[in-house]
C-alpha cells in the first residue's frame, strides 16, 4: 500500500448544527451541540482529509484510535460551525491530527485525534471472525 501524507496538510469543513446533534437533558426544546457530536464531526473531518489527501488505494480507509478533545463552549442548533484538521505526525499507518471547532463567535473545541490506516477487506475479515468467536454470527 502506498500513501501520501505530509505534515501540515489541512482540511476545513463547515456545517450547521442540527437537532439530532444536541444534548437532551438541559431543558425542553432545542438544545446545544453535544460533545459526542462535536467529536464525531472532528473525526469525520480527519477521515476525509486522509481519504482525499493521503490514500491512493480505494480499498484502504482509516479508523479512529485516540481522542483527546476539550469542549470549550456551547453552540446552539442552527449555528454554523467550522471544523479544521491538520496532520501533525505521520508514522507508518498512524496519523495524528490537531483538530479545532469554532462557531462564528469563538472556538468551541480543540485537541488531538489519532487514526490508523486500514485495509478494509482485511479489517472486515478479522471483524467477522471476532463476531463468530463471540457467537454473534
Describe this structure in words.
The chain is α+β, with helices and mostly antiparallel strands. It has one domain (10-133): Roll (Thiol Ester Dehydrase, Chain A). The protein is 24% helix and 39% strand. A 5-stranded antiparallel β-sheet has the order 1-3-4-5-2. The protein is globular. The two termini are 30 Å apart. The model has no long low-confidence stretch (mean pLDDT 92).
What can be said about this structure in brief?
With 137 residues, this protein is an alpha+beta fold. It has helices at 35-53, 120-133; strands at 10-16, 60-71, 80-91, 94-102, 107-119.
Topology:
Blueprint: E1 10-16, H1 35-53, E2 60-71, E3 80-91, E4 94-102, E5 107-119, H2 120-133
Antiparallel strand pairs: 1-3, 2-5, 3-4, 4-5
Labels describing this entry:
single chain, Thiol Ester Dehydrase, Chain A, 5 strands, globular
Percent of residues in β-strands: 35-45%
Number of beta strands: 5
Strand order of the largest sheet: 1-3-4-5-2
- The poorly predicted ranges are none
Task: Calculate the mean pLDDT score and round it.
Answer: 92
The name of the CATH architecture is Roll
By helix and strand content, what is the structural category? Answer: alpha+beta
**How many separate domains make up the residues?**
1
Amino acid at each position: 500500500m502506498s500513501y501520501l501524507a505530509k505534515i501540515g496538510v489541512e482540511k476545513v469543513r463547515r456545517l450547521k448544527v442540527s437537532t439530532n446533534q444536541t444534548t437532551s437533558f438541559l431543558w425542553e426544546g432545542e438544545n446545544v451541540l453535544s460533545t459526542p457530536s462535536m467529536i464525531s464531526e472532528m473525526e469525520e473531518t480527519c477521515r476525509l482529509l486522509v481519504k482525499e489527501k493521503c490514500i491512493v488505494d480505494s480499498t484502504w480507509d482509516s479508523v479512529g484510535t485516540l481522542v483527546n478533545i476539550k469542549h470549550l463552549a456551547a453552540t446552539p442548533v442552527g449555528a454554523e460551525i467550522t471544523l479544521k484538521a491538520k496532520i501533525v505526525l505521520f508514522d507508518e499507518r498512524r496519523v495524528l491530527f490537531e483538530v479545532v471547532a469554532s462557531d462564528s463567535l469563538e472556538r468551541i473545541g480543540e485537541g488531538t485525534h489519532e487514526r490508523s490506516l486500514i485495509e478494509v477487506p482485511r479489517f472486515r475479515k478479522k471483524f467477522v471472525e471476532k463476531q463468530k468467536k463471540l457467537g454473534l454470527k
